[in-house]
Design brief:
The complex is a heterodimer of chains A (108) and B (120). Chain A is mostly beta strands and 108 residues long. In chain A, 0% of the residues lie in helices and 48% in strands. Classes of the chains: A mainly beta (108), B mainly beta (120).
């Protein structure tokens, strides 16, 4: 099975900061990666799919990059509503769709 | 608008059974792959099961294989998860999620979740 790791596990940031979260796969997954945002008590929300494609309706301050084993989610200017936990998910090792452990973004 | 509404969660004893349902609306349900994904309290996300649009292709995570059964009724716009031989480690919020058009293994819409608690 493909294992997903994320770093950091948590980050404290201020409104307006640029935030970068990294996701690493234990083996190459091409561009079969998605990013989700989850707020407490809510369902996850798809932000990025296929490593770098922005889901419809998601603000352009979110961007994704990478391929193979190393991926990045960047929030260019953190907004109050962006404080949440972010998960990556691989979809290369069909049908086992593993998620990363999550990165919590909280207020500095 | 797309809506997914889960139901059927609750408290069940170890070894017991439960059937979850997910009612879909706002899209052509029969065109989309669907999955169940769960989240144990305070933990991360775990994909549980997947079913193709017609129901002909089904997959399970190793952790639930042989105990859980996914199914769908396209006439009723509904997805189901029959859970048998439940264990404490199955305690989680269970979400139904829609696979994206053209890439059914990215999940573009999720329900609000239903909590399953397995405890004596």
């Amino acid at each position: 099975d493909i294992q997903m790791t994320q770093s950091p596990s948590s980050v404290s940031a201020s409104v307006g900061d640029r935030v970068t979260i990294t996701c690493r796969a234990s083996q190459g997954i091409s561009s079969w990666l998605a990013w989700y945002q989850q707020k407490p008590g809510k369902a996850p929300k798809l932000l990025i799919y296929a490593a770098s494609s922005l889901q419809s309706g998601v603000p352009s301050r979110f961007s994704g990059s990478g391929s193979g084993t190393d991926f990045t989610l960047t929030i260019s200017s953190l907004q109050p509503e962006d404080f949440a936990t972010y998960y990556c998910q691989q979809a290369n090792s069909f049908p086992s769709f593993t998620f990363g452990p999550g990165t919590k973004v909280d207020i500095k | 608008q797309v809506q997914l509404v889960e139901s059927g969660g609750g408290l069940v004893k170890p070894g017991g059974s439960l059937r979850l349902s997910c009612a879909a609306s706002g899209f052509t349900f029969s065109d989309y792959y669907m999955s169940w994904i769960r989240q144990a309290p305070g933990k991360g996300l775990e994909w549980v099961s997947y079913i193709s649009s017609s129901g002909s292709t089904i997959y399970y995570a190793d952790s639930v294989k042989g105990r859980f059964t996914i199914s769908r009724d396209n006439a009723k716009n509904s997805l189901y998860l029959q859970m048998n031989s439940l264990r404490a480690e199955d305690t989680a919020v269970y979400y139904c999620a829609r696979g994206m058009d053209g890439s059914g293994w990215f999940f573009d819409y999720w329900g609000q979740g239903t909590l399953v608690t397995v405890s004596s």
